[in-house]
Amino acid sequence: MPEEKPLETTPAESTTQPATADAPAELPPAVVAPATAPAKPSAKGGGYFWGTGRRKTAVARVRMRPGTGKFLILDREINHYFSEPRDRNDVVAPLKATGTLGKYDIFINVKGGGRTGQAQAILLGIARALMKIDENHLIVLRDGRYLTRDSREVERKKPGQPKARKRFQFSKR
Q1: Among 18, 63, 88, 119, which is least packed, fewest CB within 10 Å?
Q2: Cross-strand partners of 77
């Protein structure tokens, strides 16, 4: 059986050096984590960025992906779905504020409520989806109050009254 020799290393092959009082010990290359750039946000859910918006009884589910600016609400163009310019302007307001109008394909499913409530629910859903796309939009969206959920709901009707607050005429005699 041949004799085994101990492995000898030369100073050039050594990756670590003993620590001295004035120089700290170096870490081996495997221990040092490589510096990487922050990862870009990834679209989950089939390549889409999702956002949910609610207003009164309307609920809007918004899907966004980079594209040519296609804007469909329940498979209809925005101009065919909203007849009022006020509602159309509400829907695209967060996109105009962040300068992303025309850069994303947006597909929206909305149900419940009336047209104005739906428009404001879509506004919140788009703003939340934009936040998932780029965190840098936070300041602009918050300053424009696009991320604030309007929690006002319809007051319930009370028994013995014709409406929520309306009363029957009072007769003293």
Answers
A1: 18
A2: 72
Partner residues linked to 107 by β-bridges: 63, 72
Nearest to 50 by CA among 92, 88, 106, 98: 106
pLDDT digits (tens, 9 = 90+) for 122-145: 999 999 999 999 999 999 999 999
Residue linked to tokens 């504020």: 97
What is the C-alpha separation between 69 and 60, in angstroms, rounded?
19
In tens, the pLDDT along 46-68 reads: 789 999 999 999 999 999 999 99
Amino acid of residue 32: V
Which range of 1-10, 24-33, 123-132 scores highest in mean pLDDT? It is 123-132
Q: What 3 state SS string does the chain have?
A: CCCCCCCCCCCCCCCCCCCCCCCCCCCCCCCCCCCCCCCCCCCCCCCCEEEEEEECCEEEEEEEEECCCCEEECCEEHHHHCCCHHHHHHHHHHHHHHCCCCCEEEEEEEECCCHHHHHHHHHHHHHHHHHHHCHHHHHHHHHCCCCCCCCCCCCCCCCCCCCCCCCCCCCCC
Place of tokens 């966004």: 64
